[in-house]
Known about the structure:
Two copies of one chain form a homodimer. By secondary structure, chain A is of the alpha+beta class. The first copy, chain A, is built from eight helices and eight strands; from the N terminus they run αααββαααββαβββαβ. The first copy, chain A, has three domains: 5-64, Winged helix-like DNA-binding domain superfamily/Winged helix DNA-binding domain (Arc Repressor Mutant, subunit A, Orthogonal Bundle); 78-140, Arc Repressor Mutant, subunit A (Orthogonal Bundle); 143-218, SH3 type barrels. Chain A has helices at 5-21, 27-33, 38-50, 66-89, 97-104, 110-119, 166-175, 208-211; strands at residues 54-56, 62-64, 143-146, 155-161, 182-189, 194-199, 202-206, 214-218. In chain A, a hairpin with a 2-residue loop joins β6 (194-199) and β7 (202-206). The longest helix of chain A is centred in the middle third of the chain and has 24 residues, at 66-89. The radius of gyration of chain A is 20 Å and the shape is globular. The structure holds a DNA duplex.
Amino acid sequence: MSQSFTEENYLKHIYKLSKRSEKGVSTNALAERLETKASSVTDMIKKLAAKKLVDYKKYQGVTLTKKGQKIAVDIIRKHRLWEVFLLEHLGFGGEEVHDVAEELEHINSETLIDRLDKFLGHPKYDPHGGPIPNSEGVFPEPKRVKLDELEVGRKTKVMGITEHSDAFLTHLKKLGLELGAEFDLKERFDFDRSVEIELNDKTIQLSHDVAKNIFVSYNS
Amino acid sequence: MSQSFTEENYLKHIYKLSKRSEKGVSTNALAERLETKASSVTDMIKKLAAKKLVDYKKYQGVTLTKKGQKIAVDIIRKHRLWEVFLLEHLGFGGEEVHDVAEELEHINSETLIDRLDKFLGHPKYDPHGGPIPNSEGVFPEPKRVKLDELEVGRKTKVMGITEHSDAFLTHLKKLGLELGAEFDLKERFDFDRSVEIELNDKTIQLSHDVAKNIFVSYNS
DNA sequence: ATACATTTTTAGACTTGTCTAAATTTCATT
DNA sequence: AATGAAATTTAGACAAGTCTAAAAATGTAT
């Protein structure tokens, strides 16, 4: 079974919108993302459901099936491999890359992608730090490190803590640093090893005592 | 004004069919080439004529206008540049290349093609010996010919081959006739069209079957 | 819990590119 | 020049993907 360019785009965006919300993706959210109308989205969703690429109940939003997910992840793989090529080998600048990769990602040839992957040296991350799934659709393990050892400038995600006192837990909760929270490490101050992070558009200072007890993961 | 994938394909094939026949391209010839029906071709031709990309009089066949020709030549440029990339950098074999290049040639980005061209070192010919037009649509001077048509006495250089079977490749390798090898054409024997060449001070006989599959280039 | 606003779906229409079947034009042959 | 064959065009239909406008379902106030 084969997908059209358009179907692939729907699957890709359903995948991306699913990541943040647990719930099924709403028709309106998809319509906005795809710059189309809600009615068009409904039509396409029905078609994808008939092909067993998404699960769909009227008015309840969509989620990808295993099959749909595999296709979406494949497209992300292709997109990111092409981005590596464009940025590292053709000398593209950061912004120019996206639209072109958007077209290249729909070229259908396993051989092409396998050979491109090899040519690029089997990269695990694209130049923006996006993880590149392998041909089985498996993403590379993100790297884990304690926040007090993380390189300044990285985007990261809270993966765990090594201190479990109530005091620490409530402190974190108040800051919004719960499991899975994503933030950027902006700066580290050498004199006390405290750090400054940006979380949900807020700038927060963390002492070394806090930072050393937080496990974070990052890509690339 | 922008063309669809399909329109571009029509233009490309009209261009290729025009090359051999002087006359306008017939509806049936196009239909056969595009693996579609004559009626579909008529419909599309009317659309292309409305866009001033072809000249068309009912029952008289089509020819490209200047505008249509430019688009067709651009696609050939893209196709051949991608072929160079696939064959020389990704390690594709002779046959696999075509279908993939057929898709890649429709990616629309001047930036992409300019940078790819630069990456490849501004090649003038693809590995099959096809001349690559520049971005203005001008083809390089054709100083290139198959070995079985080359004038006796010339110094030449192997520029490409048109047969990619393992048997042929190992045969050439054994003879030392690799890409870039230089030799002189000493003699041609009319009775079987075999040729005698001198390569690295050795005299070698080549059958017509071998000679006809080797592209050579010569100066002036 | 009822009424209003928002979201989603349906119904019908349009475009692109295709097809089949029938009509028309051109060509080749006598 | 007439006629039958081949090539081409027209007419009408269809699938994909989109749209607008209207109907139905859901969510949210008070």
